[in-house]
Amino acid sequence: MSNEMSPIDKAKFVAAKQATEYVTSGMKVGLGTGSTAAWLVQCLGEMVREEGLRIKGVPTSTRTAKLAREVGIEVITLDEAKWLDLTIDGTDEYDANLQLIKGGGGAHLQEKVVATASDRMIVIADASKKVETLGAFPLPVEVIPFGMQTTKALIEETLAGMDVLGQEVTQRQAGDDPFVTDEGNFILDLHLKRIGAPQTLSLALNQIPGVVENGLFLDICDTVIVGHGDGRVTVR
Ligand code: 5RP
């Protein structure tokens, strides 16, 4: 770990490092996506190369797959693994009940598929990700490109009847182009500010044809490892 690390990077690093304690040889591990998960992959790679750790990793994005291979982790597909011992991933928000919003990196579809195919999901985060109520972070919804405007209109209609504070829906961009996920889909970001009833919202969104998956991770995560800028770690 570099001494020149910013407090936020240090917080992410120490959370990731602590999460490696849950990983033992022989495990099949879901590898999350994002800057915090990237620290985890680096740390696990170091353990593979220098301590003889033997794991099989199932990445949740092409980015993570590339990094995992680069650092020496054996990469397999979810179908090859069938079931995982645990998944470790970052988050955009978590609340006191360990409910999450994910997908800031546009990978929540694979992340959710992998996490739900795991005995447990551990989240690693810096302390800024803790919220009283989910929704300050825009909720990502992955939609198929076909009929995207119609799907967007149906989402807006659905939001009108929900316990949320904001209802703006924007399409995620990558520069001048639409952001495209690993599955070839688009992302709509829902600027809700406050989500009063996440279960109801999640079910309603996923019932809309054209919606593939939303970024609410409800009753999936069992542990959150929180890193702090001074190097402390707390486990929830
Ligand atoms: C990617 C995610 C990430 O876990 C989330 O965006 C957190 O990213 P970071 O660790 O960079 O803050 O859900 O789809």
Automatic annotation (TrEMBL):
GO cellular component, one term: cytosol
GO biological process: D-ribose metabolic process; pentose-phosphate shunt, non-oxidative branch
One Pfam short name: Rib_5-P_isom_A
Enzyme class per UniProt: isomerase
Catalysed reaction equations from the record: aldehydo-D-ribose 5-phosphate = D-ribulose 5-phosphate
SUPFAM superfamilies linked: D-ribose-5-phosphate isomerase (RpiA), lid domain (SSF75445), NagB/RpiA/CoA transferase-like (SSF100950)
Top-rank taxon: Bacteria
Record keywords, A-Z: Isomerase
Enzyme Commission number(s) from the entry: 5.3.1.6
Any one Gene Ontology molecular-function term assigned to this protein's record: ribose-5-phosphate isomerase activity
Entry binding sites for substrate: T33, G34, S35, T36, D89, G90, T91, D92, K102, G103, G104, G105, K129
Active site location: E111
Pathway membership: Carbohydrate degradation; pentose phosphate pathway; D-ribose 5-phosphate from D-ribulose 5-phosphate (non-oxidative stage): step 1/1
Function: Catalyzes the reversible conversion of ribose-5-phosphate to ribulose 5-phosphate.
Similarity remark: Belongs to the ribose 5-phosphate isomerase family.
Subunit: Homodimer.
Protein's name according to its UniProt entry: Ribose-5-phosphate isomerase A
